[in-house]
Amino acid sequence: MQKELDEMKTGLIPCAQLAAERIKCSLDPEKAESEQCKEVLRNEMLCFSRALFPDLHKRAMACADERATRKEHSPECVETLNELPKTYHMFWYRVFNTVQSCEKDAHDAITSAEKELGSMPEEERKRFVEDVQVNQKMCMMEHGCGDELKAWQRCHDGAVEGGKQTKTECAAEWRKVRKCWVGFLMSTSAIAGDPQAVEAVSTTRLEQPE
User: Fold this and answer.
1) Helix (H, G, I), strand (E, B) or coil at 208
2) CA distance readout (Å), 137 to 74, 145, 148, 176
3) Global pTM value
4) Which of 14, 32, 143, 154 reaches 20 to 30 Å from 42, CA-CA?
5) How far is the C-alpha of 147 from the C-alpha of 183, rounded, in Å?
């Protein structure tokens, strides 16, 4: 599984570099609509699709080549070429909205407890902030890897209650959770235009709860 994550990391690092360029473009109103910035945006979308949706990307590239031999695209290719930007934008907004929403919850939790925090002993204050960070992580995990978490939870509950599931099966489900979570963290870092963070989170450990 780490091999797959390493391949994803290798694919996402150039996307993070393109995202950093896209962010620079968006901060410069004069450049934002230039052909150069539009090209960066196109390249970024293709980079993410190659790294995250390889099958769809291959189909789209084959459709792009199709124009060399045909006057117009086949109906299947029209569908594929429409699907690619749609899939990319849905992915982009899902990641962006998840991060924004979970960060807001964490910020609100700290802001609403500001008065109490001031009078808390340092150890207690530290514990409160750590709990908020854990909740933020769980919020992101539930949004980003909800299906994988539910599958593991079903397995875990069955194994605990003496069902047919074994610890080995549940460990395999947990590996899927970790794969999804590390992929989500790498994607988040790549969208933020931070190649070093993509590298750093690619080996994130995630202990299976008892």
Assistant:
1) coil
2) 44, 11, 15, 17
3) 0.84
4) 143
5) 14
The predicted pLDDT at position 28 comes to 86
Residue 95 near residue 190, CB atoms below 8 Å: no
Q: DSSP assignment, residue 209?
A: P
User: Would the CA dihedral through 84, 88, 89, 91 be positive or negative?
Assistant: positive
Q: Which residues contact 109 (CB under 8 A, 6 or more apart)?
A: 132, 135
How far is 14 from 20, CA to CA, in rounded Å?
Answer: 10
Residue in the structure block whose two tokens are 């890897």: 145
Q: What is the pLDDT of residues 92-101, one digit of tens each?
A: 999 999 999 9
In angstroms, how far apart are the furthest CA atoms of the chain?
Answer: 74
Going through 57-210 in order, the beta strands assigned E by DSSP cover none
- Residue found under tokens 């789209």: 60
DSSP state of 207: P
CA dihedral 19, 20, 25, 28 (to 10 degrees): 150
Dist CA 188 CA 95 (whole Å): 6
* Nearest CA among 15, 96, 11, 17 for reference residue 54: 11
Q: pLDDT per residue over 27-44, tens digit each? A: 988 887 889 999 999 999
Token look-up 């959770």 returns: 177
Q: CA-to-CA distance for 23 and 96, rounded, in angstroms?
A: 14
- And the tokens for 30? 């004069």
Which residue shows structure tokens 């908020």?
A: 132
Token pair for 29: 């109103």
